Queue: 2 jobs
Job 1
Amino acid sequence: MKIVLENVVKEFNTFRAVRGVSLEIGSGELVALLGPSGSGKTTILRMVAGLEFADQGAIYFGDEDATNIPVRERGVGFVFQHYALFPHMTVGENIAFGMKVSKKARSKQEITDRVNDLLRLVKLEGLNDRFPSQISGGQKQRVALARALAVDPKVLLLDEPFGALDANVRHDLRRWLREIHDELGITTLFVTHDQEEALDLADRVVILDQGAIVQEGTPEQVCREPNSAFVMKFLGDTNRIAATAVNGVVDLPGARLTAPGVVDGPVDILARPGDLSWSATGEGIPVSVIRVIDRPEGRRFLVRTENGETLELDVPVSTRAASGDRGFVQVLQGNAYPRS
Ligand SMILES: Nc1ncnc2c1ncn2[C@@H]1O[C@H](COP(=O)(O)OP(=O)(O)OP(=O)(O)O)[C@@H](O)[C@H]1O
């Protein structure tokens, strides 16, 4: 089921939380709405769900104008951050709940079979008779997904479903959700403020700021071609280096970057920690080391320039330095944006 949002606006009193959002989610696509807190992600999801109504614009489910269709008739399944499982019902009863209250009549046997199928799908066989208080947070979110899937939704809406879980569980659930999505192919809209989660999971990422879409594209497009300093900074660690553009070129100590289309004048070069290199002697921006940080994935130097700017750069684990050591940083790659 394709979903289309056409110039959707939502105001709370006089505050415009969503400012004319247009978006198409293809049938079977998994799209992530990604943005900082307050950027309007949840409000958009709630309008798609029918829990909130747009003040302007339209929302289509397939070819049908769903803008004013109430939540019960939209055929959507939800999973929220806070599990909202019914505490007095077992896992099996929680999953069966939607089927029991649905307009579509199902026999007891049909419901039991469907619950067992779903428990297998979410890899929770055998937990049928436990209560929510007797399972882990990650397991609760699997039950919540099984419950959402039980009524064969046309659309799945997930609002920070793994937000309350620890990093390892989140990581596993992310992979698992993608597998389930690939198996079932349900059109899915996923809200998160976690860049890594969005990039890992989604076919397409829609980046929001202050109620408006600032960029959308595949993870590759938004990572490799961020269209603004905001998007580049929001998607991952960046260094900012003050410089000047002249005739589409920015000269830095030991490096020349092209900045096509950038107006002459002061610019900020934004560069990822992996786009800077270190040399103890040689050319580049003179710096002194503040700290060396070791992580499983590699080593990072925090350094300070003579202007007092702090830079972070990833170095090979064989590169050694101590706090106070002097050296040089070369900018191998970076994007130039007019100085903000
Ligand atoms: N019912 C409401 N009444 C008044 N203002 C609201 C209401 N719901 C949301 N807002 C405001 O609308 C803006 C967008 O909120 P929304 O929850 O959509 O953002 P979000 O991107 O999902 O944020 P978060 O990541 O913190 O959940 C915020 O400024 C919020 O305070």
Note: The chain has two domains: 3-231, 237-338.
Job 2
Amino acid sequence: MIELKNVSKLYESNEGNVLALNNIDLTVEKGDIYGIMGLSGAGKSTLIRCINLLECPTSGEVWVDNVELTKLSSNLLRQSRRNMGMIFQHYHLLTSRNVEKNIAYPLELNGLPKNQIKERVDQLLDLVGLKEKRSNYPSQLSGGQRQRIAIARALATNPKILLSDEATSALDPITSRSILNLLKEINNKLGITIVLITHQMEVIEQICNKTAVLKDGNIVEQGLVSRVFKAPQHPYTKLLLGHRDFEKHDPISLDFFRNVKVGGL
Ligand SMILES: Nc1ncnc2c1ncn2[C@@H]1O[C@H](COP(=O)(O)OP(=O)(O)OP(=O)(O)O)[C@@H](O)[C@H]1O
């Protein structure tokens, strides 16, 4: 279980301060696929990076499986992070290593013997359906294949939690769907809890069971996806979902809508 308690993040700089997260309370239960949605600048990346403390909250507590990460020494934090894999919009694969070596990388860092690394890499290649690409380099793969390898690498150390930072945003709709299906399969088969951030409401609808809507660093609504999508309570959620329906059902009008300045409507 992941719990954020009263988490705030203030970025301070000479250009001015930005309160990216404002008193966030969030609980993700074991086995959830929890989707955090919001527009650009809402604070999504900051929030997901606070879960594994890639970003340190200015105040508040982060708990994972009853351990308060915000209190851990850097050594213990490093160990705790092994329980959390992460995938990114632009994959972050190592270009000088082939597929096999990319997946093996975290296992090498953990000092696993070579024969066990090979066995684990084989299992993971099987899971993501890319056995035949084991000798290829990232530059020789499509975006969808790169993301599959990034997922395999993120799962190499058997994490209990997978964090997904806009993992399908750079992909076409069909490839995006296949990656989301893979994430769902991983959640089902391996019981891995997934937290994802996205600005695409269809991603939430396709695989998440719970969601939170983030606006200007505040969670304005959270709950079961089935409830939030059917009966949104907050005006901002209604606006986001209303726009999605508009996009889905009326693409011709949308072209017009895109060209109209909001202030001029
Ligand atoms: N390192 C930083 N220093 C200062 N301000 C930052 C920093 N990182 C993010 N911010 C600001 O914090 C706010 C939230 O940013 P964040 O990247 O978390 O939003 P986001 O919802 O992930 O946006 P996007 O979808 O565009 O990636 C923004 O106003 C951003 O400019």
Note: The CA atoms of residues 105 and 209 lie 32 Å apart.
